[in-house]
Amino acid sequence: MSTHVPQTGLPVVVIGAGPVGLAAAAHLSARGLTPLVLEAGEAVGAAMREWGHIRTFTPWRYIVDATAEKLLAPTGWTQPAGDVPPTGAEIVAGYLEPLAAALGDDVVRTAARVLAVSRAGLDKSRTLGRAERPFLVRVQDTNGVSDVRAAAVIDASGTWAQRNPLGAAGLPAIGEADAQAAGLLVGPLPDVLGADRARFAGRRTLVVGMGHSAANTLLSLARLAREEPGTEIVWAIRGTDATRLYGGGDSDQLRDRGKLGTDLGSLVASGAIEHVPGFSVTRLETADDGDSVTVVGETAEGELRIEGVHAVAAATGFRPDLGMLAEVRLDLDAGLDAPTRLAPLIDPAFHSCGTVPPHGHRELAHDGEPGFYVVGMKAYGRAPTFLITTGNEQVRSIAAHLAGDDAAADEVQLVLPETGVCSVRTPVDAAHAAWADGSPRLGFATGGGGGRAAELEITAVGAPVAGAACCG
């Protein structure tokens, strides 16, 4: 295909100022195109800030985009050295904020929420002349609601704000809304050892999900239990085998990701965590005093009730928010909500984070809507296999294509770390029951997650991931 950016002087709108969104802006700028980044949060990296206390399992070299690094170089910025993975807060402060500053306030607009995307003068049903019309992006900011016209649109808004429900059928469990209203449901990555400590200390917590977000929360709770008597931990998963999360151990090239699963397996084997496999949540019964909830679910043996729970950490993953794209002609896989050509490449039934093949503008295109792309964690829909370095490759390819350089757009410039996190069984080693520095880890495949059945998902790094939702 030729370039999808007509020479109209209109910007390419990028939705979301996370790592992939800002990398997209850097690539567009380097290609001579005009990016306009619209971020709903009050600051860049808004979703990542919510799990800033979490240390990713992704080293800096897999996070920093090469073109973004070139843009930053004249400012004196250098990529942090070493293999110690950064926390979410460190990524925001050490990379996203400097990158946004280098791009400039005229490029990155915060507190600007995209409400909808369409074509100027055409609704979704109109075909004739569609590709020649600019996009219309409706935005709400401090000045009210306005429309921005764009030559192309790249949606890197992530999935952090659209969490999967606890209910096993993809619907909220009966009574889930009541438990949430009572404050008994928490997000996938609470700050167990910091700001949220009092909520969990000396109390009974149920973690639901089988992704890296669940693992991080469980490890933090286990450390809290060693420090605070009476702290109880229950971990429920829909599947019957947690081997995939226990991971590849020493065979994982992302060392901290391998250790994440090994440590969790050790805690379960020791009895520090009560593990309930094969549990599908159907109902939540909030106590009359609102202080606890009984979580009811189905197992192979029949109904099971987990009683006296003071907090439920719903690490059940994320799904893309497609509401603002209702007037866009999306070409999505029916199961994963990912672009049709991308879906078989990322299907978690066959792929882990490191086995997803490189892909770019061709796999991410929507044939009925040329010039529109969903990238980053949101591009993966409900699949938990995203890595931030994959998102950087996505936007590199798209920017090259929009600039008319399809030779560069089709060139593969991506090397992924090997991962055994989804498929390799390793022996449980009780000696690895705690992190060396005591900090939880989140993968940038993440932003925050739970596997296909429960979804993160992050890996990441995410994100959720720490995926993240987090990762767009």
Fold topology:
Layout lengths: L11 E4 L3 H12 L4 E4 L7 H5 L4 E2 L9 H7 L15 H16 L4 E2 L3 E7 L15 E7 L2 E7 L1 E4 L20 H6 L3 E2 L10 H4 L3 E5 L3 H16 L4 E5 L6 H4 L8 H16 L3 E3 L3 E7 L6 E7 L2 E8 L1 E4 L28 H4 L14 H4 L7 E3 L13 H15 L3 H4 L31 E2 L8 H4 L18
Task: Explain briefly what this protein structure is.
With 472 residues, this protein is an alpha/beta fold. It has helices at residues 19-30, 46-50, 66-72, 88-103, 176-181, 197-200, 212-227, 243-246, 255-270, 343-346, 361-364, 388-402, 406-409, 451-454; strands at 12-15, 35-38, 55-56, 108-109, 113-119, 135-141, 144-150, 152-155, 185-186, 204-208, 232-236, 274-276, 280-286, 293-299, 302-309, 311-314, 372-374, 441-442. The protein has 2 domains: 12-161 and 319-409, FAD/NAD(P)-binding domain; 176-316 and 422-438, FAD/NAD(P)-binding domain, CATH 3.50.50.60.
Any overview of this molecule?
Strand 13 and strand 14 (293-299) form a beta hairpin. It is built from 14 helices and 18 strands. The protein has helices spanning 19-30, 46-50, 66-72, 88-103, 176-181, 197-200, 212-227, 243-246, 255-270, 343-346, 361-364, 388-402, 406-409, 451-454; strands spanning 12-15, 35-38, 55-56, 108-109, 113-119, 135-141, 144-150, 152-155, 185-186, 204-208, 232-236, 274-276, 280-286, 293-299, 302-309, 311-314, 372-374, 441-442. It folds into two domains: 12-161 and 319-409, FAD/NAD(P)-binding domain; 176-316 and 422-438, FAD/NAD(P)-binding domain (3-Layer(bba) Sandwich). It is globular. Helix 1 (19-30) packs parallel to helix 4 (88-103), helix 3 crosses helix 4 and helix 7 (212-227) crosses helix 9. 25% of the residues lie in helices and 18% in strands. Mean pLDDT is 85; it is low at 249-254 and 419-472. The strands form five sheets. It has a five-stranded parallel sheet. The chain has a five-stranded parallel sheet with strand order 9-16-10-11-12. It has 472 residues and is an alpha/beta fold. InterPro entries: Auxin_biosynth/cation_transpt, FAD/NAD-bd_sf. It comes from Blastococcus jejuensis. This is FAD-dependent oxidoreductase. Keywords: Oxidoreductase. It holds the Pfam family Pyr_redox_3.
